[in-house]
Structures are given as C-alpha cells and as structure tokens.
Design brief:
The protein is an all-alpha fold and 183 residues long. Helix content is 80%, strand content 0%. The chain is elongated, with a radius of gyration of 19 Å.
Length: 183
C-alpha cells in the first residue's frame, strides 16, 4: 500500500485529522500507522513535519481563496462584501483553528496564514471602499476590524463561532451604511 500513497493522500489525512483532533494528531508515526506506511514513505513526500504542516495549511489557504473567488464572482461590490462576510460564518472552524495553531510552531505556516489574512483583509478593504466610498486608509481600518472579528470568532467554541462575529459585523456595516449610504 505504501507505494500507492501520494502526497495528496497524506494531506487529505492531515486535513481530516486536524479538523477532528487538532494539531497533536499530526504525529508522523501515527500518520504512518494510519496509512500503513513507514517514516521513509512519509519522507518521500515531505522533508519533515514542518513541510507536511505547510502542505496541510496550504490546502486550507487554497480552499479559502477558492471559496472567496467563487463567492465574489460576477457580483456587484455590495453583494461581494456580503458574500465575504457570509464566508466567515461558513468557515470550517476546527480546520482554521488547527491551521492557526500549527502556525505557532512552524514559521512557514505562520507566513502562509499571515499572507492569507492579508488577502482576506484586502478583499474586505476593497469592497468596503467600493460600497461605502471610503478612502484607502479608512477602508483598510474597517477591513481590518471585520477580519479581526473573523479571526476572533475562530477562537470560540465551534458551536458559537458560526454566529459570534455576525452581530458585530452587522453593526459595523450598519454604522457604515448610516454614515456612508450605499449608492
């Protein structure tokens, strides 16, 4: 079986375990046991646990980026903004929390998470500027607040995370709407 195990198989297992059991579940020996492989098979695909953690995190980042592109495609700015805010509620809390925990131990993962956060904030900033006619700095400040709400929500228990940031996000967009009416 070990000859048939691909890098994608390792990543798929890592994503599933990270979602269900958290970062401690990415123990190389345990992973090898689950796939019926030995450490040499793991090393054929990943130089070390950091490279593996990065591959798992990249899966999360790529999926989040694809979801954002899909949610925004073909929509006007106000609809794109609402779609991005909805994605925060739809996020896989356990996977995102697990990736953020991996970032604490793996600098490459931390850089990937920072980059994903920056892209998310930029998308929110761009949509806020377009919808509310805000200047770049002001839009960035509100974009950062909305993204920070998303990150904070991911730290909540999974059953609370889906709704925890939604109320404050609605309040912020209502405040913006009353001060900068959508045209």
């Amino acid at each position: 079986m070990a000859d048939e195990v691909t890098a994608d198989d390792w990543v798929t297992l890592g994503v599933a375990l990270l979602q269900r059991e958290g970062p401690a579940s990415l123990d190389v020996a345990e992973l090898c046991g689950r796939l019926g492989c030995d450490v040499a098979d793991f090393r054929n695909h990943f130089a070390d646990k950091g490279a593996y953690a990065l591959a798992v995190a990249r899966h999360w980042a790529d999926a989040a980026e694809a979801a954002a592109r899909s949610a925004r495609r073909g929509r006007k700015p106000s609809e794109r903004l609402l779609a991005m805010l909805a994605l925060g509620v739809e996020a896989d809390v356990n996977l995102e929390r697990g990736v953020r925990a991996l970032a604490a131990d793996h600098p490459e993962v931390a850089e990937l998470v920072r980059s994903a956060d920056d892209r998310h904030e930029l998308v929110l900033t761009t949509d806020l500027a377009a919808v509310y006619g805000l200047g770049a700095e002001e839009a960035q400040e509100f974009g950062r607040v909305l993204h920070a709400l998303h990150v904070a929500a991911m730290g909540r228990p999974a059953d609370e995370a889906k709704t925890w940031g939604a109320g404050p996000a609605r309040a912020i967009t209502a405040l913006l709407g009353s001060n900068f009416p959508i045209e």
